[in-house]
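Why do we care about 3D structure at all? Because function follows from shape, and shape follows, mostly, from sequence. That is the central idea of this module. The next example makes it concrete: a single protein chain, its amino acid sequence, and then its structure expressed as tokens.
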Amino acid sequence: MRRSAALATAVVVVALTVTACGSGASPGSCDTDRGTLTLGLIAPLSGDLANIGAGMRNAADLAVREANERCAVPGYRLALDARDDRADPPTGAAAARQLAADPGLVGVVGTYNSSTAQAVQPVLGDAGVVQVSPGNTNVSLTRGANPVTAPLRQYQTYFRVVATDAVQGPLAANYLAGTGRTRVAVVSDGNTYGEGLAGEFVKQFQTRGGQVVLRQVLPASAPPAARDATVAAVRAARPQAVFYGGEYPAGGPLAEALAGAGGPLMGGDGLVNPGYAAAGGQDGDLGTSVGAPPETLPAARGFVDAYRAAGYAEGYGEYGAFSFDAADVVIDAVAGVVNGRGGGEWSPDQRPAVVQAVQSTDVDGVTGPLSFDRFGDVSSDAVTVYRLVGGRWIPERTQP
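And the structure:
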């Protein structure tokens, strides 16, 4: 049976005003005598991607607040433990180890970066802790190194609520091919996310009869001379567009250096960030991002209103709504496990039951329907194409 997360959020918007606690409860009447359960979050809370991590953290915090308002887990109070991974895999793995050592940890929301997820997955997998990502898009995280010929799920504890690069990359290729562009240069940053996205784009663009006139790797940390050489190579190849696999802090300067090279720069969700224009992104550039803008979804209206009412200093960004859904998925699973034991005590040996409960999820989230296939991928695969206009990303269309 589906539960409407949007309805739950709308109820909490009212609860913020009347300070109700759960259905028919009075303020402070939730039984929390059994203690505190922890929902972990691992995200980039500092560095170039901190604005993304802040929206993820705040949205997960909102989900925890709402859960406590409705007395979601009888006998327990939920608390968010947010850890900074700095978009760095070893730091993310250390954060996962610290979280997993807490016997009250019920699950983790995160990570954002696919490369960080590769380091976090085995840590949480070994501890039996469920992980639900609101931002990872690399295909191999759920389907292994050979996702087409021999798909293999490596971690039963890992799930995600966003579409993968196997959807984003081909959609971007189809978009450019549909505009009549047949010659494209492809540049990527060498990281897990960027390489995976670029690879999916190339396969589909060539399937559509397009020609990749240049394929080059430019690490985000490369010195200016290396970027200048890449820019010169792109200009010499005379493409009609450039596809970039990477994040906006490096993508923006590349777009600025390529201005006037003959076409727009296009990328994936790593580019669709308010910081892209400030980093050098050019009007007319294109990007794809997972899901539809929350402001356009009736189901997300309650989330948007509740987030604004909560007074967070940062906006929810591109991944806030997904983080809210990811947190809610874990919380609902934990509530079902604890309630199923007749309100019994939580213990770490219940973590496998939480994993199984997440696998069985079938709800309407604020971002759309949420259920998972046998690999842990979400059933919804909506992706939106954006265009940079006046320094702002404007949605053009959402598919499907």
